[in-house]
Design a protein that fits this description.
Strands 1-2-7-4 form a 4-stranded antiparallel beta sheet, sandwiched between helices. Strands 3-8 form a two-stranded parallel sheet. The N and C termini lie far apart (78 Å). It has 17 helices and 8 strands. The protein has helices at 3-18, 34-42, 51-54, 56-59, 62-65, 104-122, 139-145, 192-196, 214-219, 227-230, 242-246, 258-261, 268-272, 276-283, 293-307, 313-321, 327-336, and strands at residues 22-27, 71-78, 94-95, 128-131, 150-151, 157-158, 166-173, 236-238. With 341 residues, the protein is an alpha+beta fold. The chain has 2 domains: 3-83 and 101-173, NADH Oxidase; 192-336, no CATH class. The mean pLDDT is 92.
């Protein structure tokens, strides 16, 4: 057997034994789908995320992050919910499923380091670096190139048997491993995610307008949310899983890892009463920390306006009186609840 093929098989076996659900290998050279990324930037669909345009050149070449790199190990961990969520409760804030458990950055980075140590035992010359959504790296494109899954219309990586409720990690290394073959597109004529998007952010292709995406607006956007998009927010306070909930490939998938799924819950009234210490306690050790207190308060105020729950008028007024609240969002919510003026 070709030594490269044999080593690749050993590395994949170690990855699965370390706890990853899928692993594929991509070359560390030019990243595929660069033309789609360029088109996305040209349209301005990255919105306020200017760092994506600034690091575009590095994003195209994994070997710029790790000089001398030959291969990228693309790794997957699932976070599919255990059963179905309870029926929508207007008093409970919606949190994206990927952020309900422990901070996946730390969980997967630690797991990568364990895997790297094990690889070094069978290949002493191994050198590499692990990355989990923290550097300019086209993770989904690399995973698609490695045959782990394909990029769906909603821009998510869809993994056969696991769907799109997956988190990604990469190890860029010096091992010369044969790359895996990409999978064919599995979306076909399906448009369920396009129809399900509350704001029409999904185009007919793997490009999403971040300026309209509720996930980006609630987590990345720091200013006011445009009035025409506020009603579509519903009770979403951190992220939006609407396109994933509609995807047929997410039906019947096995439950994700316990430490990545989590059970964090919080009501809108609780968030509206938050101060810095409350935000710190609730988000500590979770990816929820990506959004700052002012964003949580803004999102919760808008969600309160959408809830129809008049018991939230008092918390909204107290937030406004405290002087630290998002005045525009609170005023909009009070008007929606019939308490404006």
């Amino acid at each position: 057997m070709d030594p490269r093929v044999e080593l690749a098989a050993v590395v994949k076996k170690l990855a699965l034994e370390t706890g990853f659900a899928r692993v594929g290998i991509a070359p560390a050279g030019p990243t595929p789908h660069a033309e789609l990324f360029d088109e996305w930037l040209r349209r301005g669909w990255h919105g306020e995320m200017s760092y994506l345009a600034r690091d575009a050149e590095t994003r195209r070449r994994p070997d710029r992050l790790v000089p001398g790199a030959r291969s990228v190990l693309c790794l997957v961990a699932p976070y599919a919910p255990v059963g179905e969520d309870a029926p929508a409760n207007p008093s409970v804030a919606f949190l994206a499923r990927y952020a309900r458990g422990r901070d996946y950055h730390k969980v997967l980075k630690k797991r990568c380091h364990v895997l790297m140590d094990r690889i070094r035992e069978v290949s002493p010359d191994f050198e590499g670096r692990a990355f989990v959504d923290s550097v300019p790296l086209s993770e989904r494109s690399l995973a698609a190139a490695a045959g782990v899954g394909w990029i769906g219309r909603n821009g998510c990586l869809i993994v056969p048997g696991l769907g799109s409720y997956v988190l990604l990690a990469e190890i860029i290394c010096n091992l010369d491993l044969p790359p895996d073959a990409p999978l064919p597109d599995g979306c076909g004529p399906c448009r369920q995610c396009v129809f399900a998007c509350p704001t029409g952010a999904i185009a007919d292709g793997p490009l999403v307008d971040a300026r309209r995406c509720l996930s980006c607006l609630t987590i990345e956007h720091r200013g006011e949310i445009a009035p025409e998009l506020r009603a579509a927010l519903g009770r979403r306070v951190f992220g939006c899983d609407a396109c994933q909930e509609a995807c047929p490939h997410n039906r019947g998938v096995p439950p994700g890892e316990a430490e990545l799924t989590g059970e964090r819950r919080v009501t809108l009234a609780e968030i509206l009463a938050w101060r810095e210490g409350d935000w710190d306690a609730f988000t500590r050790g979770a990816a929820l920390r990506r959004a700052k207190l002012d964003q949580w308060l803004r999102n919760a105020a808008l969600a309160a306006g959408n809830s129809g729950d008049t018991s939230l008028i008092g918390p909204l007024r107290r937030l406004l009186a405290g002087g630290a609240g998002p005045a525009d969002a609170v005023a909009w919510a009070l008007a929606r609840l019939g308490a404006g003026g």
